Amino acid sequence: MRIGIRVDASYGIGSGHVFRCANLATALQRIGLTPIFFMREGSDSLTELVNGLGFKVVCLTFPHAGSHENPFFLDVAKDAQCFIESAISQSIDAVLVDHYGVDADWELRVGRNFPVFAIDDFLDRRHSAKLVINPNYLCREDTELFKSNSPESDCLSGSMFALIKSHSCFDSSFTRNTEGLPPISLYFGASDPGGITLMVLQTLLEEIKVKNFIHVIVGINSNYKERITAFAQQFNNVQIHEFVDDLGSIFSIAPIAIGAGGSTIWDRLLFKNHTLVITIAENQVPLSKNLANIGAVNYIGGLSELTSQELLIGIENHIRNYQNFSFDASKLLIDRHGTERVAFLIKLALGEMVDFSLSQSVGSNKENGFQAEFDLMSLELFICKISINQDKNVLEILIRDNEFSECLRNFRILSIEDIVARNLYHIYPSNLVSFGATQEKSVIFLIDEGSWLLNYLWGAIPKFNLLGFNLLVTHSIDSCPSADVCVVLGYTQILNSKARERFRSVVVVHESPLPEGRGWSPMTWRVLEGIKEMTLTLFEATDDVDSGVIYLQSQVALTGIELIEDLRRIQASESFRLIEKFLSAFPKILGRGQAQLGNPSFYPRRHPIDSRCSSASTIDEIFDLLRVSDPDKYPVTFEKNGQIFTLTIKTYNSRDKNQPGE
What we know:
Elements: E1 2-7, H1 16-30, E2 34-40, H2 47-52, E3 56-60, H3 76-89, E4 94-98, H4 104-111, E5 116-119, E6 131-134, H5 140-148, E7 154-157, E8 184-187, H6 196-208, E9 214-217, H7 225-232, E10 238-241, H8 248-251, E11 256-259, H9 264-270, E12 274-279, H10 284-293, E13 298-302, H11 308-320, H12 338-349, H13 379-382, E14 383-389, E15 394-399, H14 403-410, H15 416-427, E16 433-435, E17 441-447, H16 453-465, E18 469-474, E19 483-489, H17 497-500, E20 503-510, E21 518-519, H18 522-528, E22 533-540, E23 550-557, H19 564-585, E24 602-603, H20 619-628, E25 636-640, E26 643-647
Parallel strand pairs: 1-2, 1-4, 2-3, 4-5, 5-6, 6-7, 8-9, 8-11, 9-10, 11-12, 12-13, 15-16, 17-18, 17-19, 19-20, 21-24
Antiparallel strand pairs: 14-15, 16-18, 20-22, 22-23, 25-26
């Protein structure tokens, strides 16, 4: 699938749009999408840089606004038409736009041909894109304003979506070096408007006369390169970097940072830099003020409003207060995965399958028999806390409770809980997995490790999470902590009274109209008896097997041709519907249980011999046996001339390559 990225850079607009789109394009590429950039021609548009990063660039050639006079202006009608024609010629499937000149009108025009996603760090611009992302930290009032201007779009905001580079040098255990004179970094973006880099460098070296080593990153479009280099050559504590592919390589060694308030502010915070911000564009002001209000950065004003004296005092105070800086960036959920989150979300919103399988081990804990391994490119995108509680001997997972989860639900795709559960089962197939840890009520699902119901349970986790319960899944009653409810699913061991004491209620779902059909494999036995309905009973577990009070019961009509996969799907769906109904009414439902009435009947445990048929059997005679037998564990078998053979059955699909009789 091809994603067209509409973005520009100029002296007036700045370069942050292009750099963050390049970061996102890299992440999109990693998950199987093909990004293609659509940019206007111009010496300052960074098209060569984007090409150099390995991305295709299509130049839009019709006249646009001047770079300096009004960088926010775009002839929406002409640009949209030109873009649509170019995008169609490149076989584009979807569009991502990050442009100050674009609003709902452009998105509506382009949206008639492609699904549109928008990135915008202004709050008051109207959008009509499918998804609008503001990758900045916003206060509550700003968030409400941002959403109110795009009522038809899914809107996401926050630093967890910061489109920063996935720094290869970043280590989550990174700590600042506080010994000696801390190095300083200077970076004011690719355009370096007004020569702010040279002004700050002169202030540091000529007026304050710092002895700290200074790393100066010169903007790729800066008109002051030669003057900066010539000035720096007079000092032995300055190093000039004309182009830095990974800014983290500088920010990781220079704990004091002075720079603009654009997207690189997140890179600095990620590396715990003591950051002085001087804004060089209007759009940088809200973010800089918000971050200054919570102590994340030191904001002294905009380039156009600062006097030389204010600049001197601001820089001098900033360096002096370095030792007192102690902001914890984790409060803002800053990590290096914001770009990947947005990439995953775009792919999911387009209906594309995303591989959430574990692939990269990034951490482990082997205490008490646990071994946790998590993938940076999947699980950490959706979880804000994973920890092992040694007291309870349980893996605790705290799902992010934010707009991202809501947006996933809007797209009707895998929920965060489902993604996490499906992955963690491969890590913890025989231990405890806990979801939530913030609710007043708790429920434990007790299920055999090899049960076929387990995969269906992972898919049902999100519904149960919404009922206000902490959730825990385990395969052993011996390691279960106390809880309000224990739901027994496909668990073959009997729970004695002592085991049940730790729960307020222990419920079981049984596939028969109790008291009829107590015992083993009731669904299978009833199908073999020719019964054309599935009855499920949710009841309280007691010492006498399958004899407790009944809380809920339901029936599902069967056609008589369902195979084992169909029967299991029906059983799982109806079982979880009853469980959800029970939990929704808990604890009041405990007073509504009805004693079992009538004479009980019992089914014995099934063995391989029960799936044996005669070689002379007709299809009609063994059809029900074929459709209820597990082809892997208990296939239908027959003996012929001393040799055992197996029989399996599956539904014919007219689209199968092998046609009947061929």
